[in-house]
Structures are given as structure tokens and as C-alpha cells.
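Q: What would this complex look like in 3D?
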Amino acid sequence: MQVKLTKQQQVKKWALIGVGLLLLCILPFLLPKAYFVHVAIMCLFWAYMSTSWNMLCGFAGTISLGHGIYVAAGAYIVTILLNTFGITPWVGLIASCVVASVMAVIIGFPIFNLRGAYYTLSTVAIGEGIVVLLTNFREWKISEDLTIKIGGAEGLTMQTMNSPLYMQWRGKIPYYFMILIMLIIAIVVSDYVKRNKLGFQLAAVKDDEDAARALGIDVRSVKLKAAILSAVFTALGGVFYALIIRFLEPAAVASGATMSNQIVFGAIVGGSGTVLGPAFGGLVLNLVSSVIQYYLGGSVQGLHLFIYGVIIVAMIIFKPTGFITVLEKLYYKYLGIEISDALDAPEEEVAVDGT
Amino acid sequence: MSLMPSIINGASMGAIYRLIAMGLTLIFGTMRVTNFAHGAMLMLSMITAYSVWAATGINPYLLIVIIGPLMFFVGYATQLFLIRPVLKAESDKNDPIGVLLLTAGFSIVLENLALMIFGADYRMAQTDFSNTVFTFGRTSLSAPRLYGLIITLVVSALLWAFLQCTEPGRQLRATGQDRNTAALMGINSEQTFAVAFGISTALLAVAGLVLLPFYYVTPSVGNVFQTRAFIVVVLGGLGSVPGALVGGIIIGLIETVAAQFMTASVTSVLIYLVFLIVLFVKPSGLFGTPFH
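A: Here is my prediction, written as C-alpha cells for the whole assembly.
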């Protein structure tokens, strides 16, 4: 919702953002165990991934369940460049971005013709196909003295350098700030996209693709732009994943169950299509699951994922617009803006009576 | 080397994919829902069947008397309590995407529930005919696969007869063609959806029982079959029952015949490749009608 804020409300808004950032900055120093810092890092990581996914799928209303391939692109390319050629991730991440955008274009060109379930299912097929490929290629012999190790099913370990030159920091806290900065950039970019021409075009496509086309929007090029943006950000997330975990397993990095679907669930639970929703969703979902795993995980196998699944199912049934709508209400209350329910009610609820 | 054994094996595996895919296509055809919990439901039927078999030792095929109605009920209840509210909220959209994610979430719930109760072990029902092999001339086929082929063929024929010749079947097809018109003709679409879901999961009960004597059971067993079933369904055209038949045969054959010439892993990449090519050339599948 677009609201023109008064000066006082502007101050209030920036105060809220400032306090939030400050809290996030001092948080890692307050956590008593390195494990908790790791959990905080992973929460921000999933928030970041869901935000990246949202740039294409939330704004354009297409559900991709295959974003794991971009994660894999980022993670594997950076690791292979470091292991085989000794190229630092600072440079490698550029290669990752290039490869991810090329992938987005190659995949996007044919696939954007497909709609709804067909689109989603083809992203599933591409994702699982890539997992199978990665699982089965252990190495790639280019010439006599050059063999690229891909790892196959055994996985691929990133060489340890322990030097900032190779983006490998001492301790967990630098990683925390790294992902925090990445998340802030992703949110700012999302916000920029949403407020500008591309965002409006995407919203039109999301609402009604045929109508958007009739209005002169080049649907495919708009989607491709968003896809490239989303792929690049997701690949950077993959780079971060490689740096923090330092071990890549095809199933963990690219498969639907462990990567692609989790990204989507975060975005949906938070509220897909909004700027902050996916970040909140990814963060909270991961936090809840980690907390349950920490306190109960040892006792019953699968319990934390069971509860994780129940939360997702309950959210989709009872709050399909995501819990960002709740936060939004609180936010407007804080600013002192009255919003009437009629304006705020999502269209779906109004339409129910008609059927 | 003759290709005959692998063709027959492919046909029997393809028949099972087909049975699973038919349930999927039935749900999609009637209510435009892509069920991502289909694999988890298959796992549920296999685990329940395994547990009953382990406790009693009855011939797995006879267990259909218990597992069939049970799975029908599970599907019916899933539709009523989980899918319906979300579907209702999204009734103005052509592609209910919330439902798709709901079923994906539900599959996590089911899989981990099974993991909590059943454990992560791989188990297999060793029946007295599990190791029997029939030989016809130069080809041979293991008994469970042959029985499986026969049972799935019979069940497919029954389903076809149900859809074509009975009143509930007609209602199902009518609802699939046009939900609103069907409702105007006095068809209770809520009821029809629930029945469609129930039949779909009952088909999974059959598939699960057929798989039991020669396939391992584990909480994640559904994933392999689910991805295959998706491919079969899209290949044949989402919502088309004859399409699922043909798609199942194609995938089964590619899988086993191609495995004669290349490694099994390359075969599965080949399946994804065929799938993507068909999708890009004819997005509505081999038998599907173009979507609107």
C-alpha cells in the first residue's frame, strides 16, 4: 500500500529501521554459543534466499520450485574455481553471477511460455535433472594435466585458505555481517524494483498475463529481466553457502526437498510479492525449526521437520497472504495511520461471496 | 542380446507409474490441483501395508480390502479438511498455486510423521513369491512384476469403466470439463472433488501393494515415484487419463530399454530431457487440450 507519510511519520519510520538494524548488529555479540551465531547466520541466509526468489516468483506470480539450480551454480562454480584454479571467491562470484544469468536466460526463454502448474512442474524437472547430473559427474578431464573435480555423490569440499583474501574469515561473526549486508542489499533492490517500472509491469503480468500483453507489455522480456535478477541474487546466496558450509553435496545444494522448496516456503509463509515478507518468512521459519531441533531434535527423528510442515500447512490455510499483513497492520498502528478494513482486505476474500 | 526382457520389465514398471499418474491426473483434471503430496500418500499406503503385512503375514495383494478403503478415506478427508478451504479462497484464479504449496507442505508433514513412527530404515516385504521367476521362451520376468502388471491393467480398465459408464464417473468428468456448469446441472462439486481425491489415493493403495513385494519401503520412497508420475502426467497432458496411459508406457520403456545402452543415471537425465522437449514442443502434452 502506498501512503504519503508526514515528516513526523518519516522520522518514526527511520527510527524503527535504525533500531532494527542496530539490534541486528549487536545480536551476534550477545549470543553465548558459536552454534547460536550459526543459527542466526542460517536464518539470515534463508531470509536472503526467499527474498531473491521473490524478485521473480513473488512479483511475477510464477512459482518456481527449481531455484536450487542457481544455488548450485553459485556454490559449485566458486568452489571449483578455488579448488582447481586457485581463483579467489572475490573474483569467482562474478563468474557465478554470469553463469547464473546465462542459465536464467537459457531456461527462461522456452519455459516462460508455460503457465501455472506446467511452469512449476518443468522447474521441478530441471532442478531434479541438475541434481542427477551433479551426482553422477565426479570429474571432468579437459586435458592431460587439467581435471576439474566436481565430486559427484561424495560431495565437494572447499579448500581451506583461512584468509580474507579468499573470503574465508576467522570465526563466525564476519559471516554474519556478510549475509546481513547481502540481505539488506537484496531488500533494497527488491524495494527499488517494486517501486519502479519493472515492478509495475511484473504486477500487471501477475494479475493477468493476457491483459498485460494487450497493454503492450513484452511479457517475456519483463519476466527474463526479473529472472536474471533473481538468479544472480540466488547464485550469490549459493556462493555464501559454499563459504559457510564448505562442503557441497548435490542433493543438499540443489534438490527440491532441501533447497528449492524451503526457499519457496519461507517466501509464502512471510507473504510472497511483498518486499519484506519473504525475508521475515524465511527467517522465522528457519528460526522455529532450528529452535525445535536444538531442544527436541535429539529425542525424536524428524520432529522438527514435522512441526515445520505443520506450520506451513496451517499458514497456507489460515493466512494465505502471509504474516506480513499482520506486521503491516502493527506498523501502520505505530505510525498512527488509520486504515479501513475494506481497503486492506485482499481481493480473494471479497470474491468468495461471488462463487 | 535381446531387448525383449527389458521391454517387458519396462512395461511392468511403466504400468505402475501409470497407475500413480492416473490418480494425479484425475485430481488435476477435476479440480486443477497439482498434488505434491502424491508421493507421500504412496509412501503412506506402502508403510501401512508393510506394517499390516509384517504383523499378520497375509498375502499383500489381499490387503487391498483394508488398505484400499483406508486410503480412500485418507484422500477424502484430505480434500475436505485441507484442500477445500484453500481452494475456495482461490476459486477466482485459474491456477490455484496456494494449493500446490499446501500439498508440498503436507508431504513434509506426512514424510516426517512416517520418519518419527517408522524410522529411516529400508525394509522390504519378502513374500514367498518374491523370488519366483517366470520364463517365457527367452525372456523371464519375476513373479511380483508380472502380477503387478496384470493387477494394474485390470485396475486401469476398471477406472476407465468407472469414468465412462457410471453416474459418479460422469459427474467427475463433467466437473472436470466445467466446474460451474456442472454445478448448475445439480452436481455437488464439493462431493465430487472429495470422491476424486479418494479414488486417486485408493489407486495409490493399489500401486503401493503392487510395489510391496519387490520394492523397498522407507519414508522417502514416494519422491522417486512422484517425480516420475509428474513427468508421465505432463507428458500425456495434465488431466488426460489416456495421456497418463501412454506417458507411463513411454517413461517405463525409456527407463529400461535405455538402461541397456547407458548407465542408469544417464537414463534418468534422458527422461528429464524427453520431458522438457515434449513440454517445449507441445506444452499441453501429447493428449492434453491447450490450456486457456
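A: To summarize the key features: Chain B touches chain A through 53 residues (CB under 8 Å). The CA atoms of residues 67 and 240 of chain B lie 26 Å apart.
Q: Very helpful, thank you.
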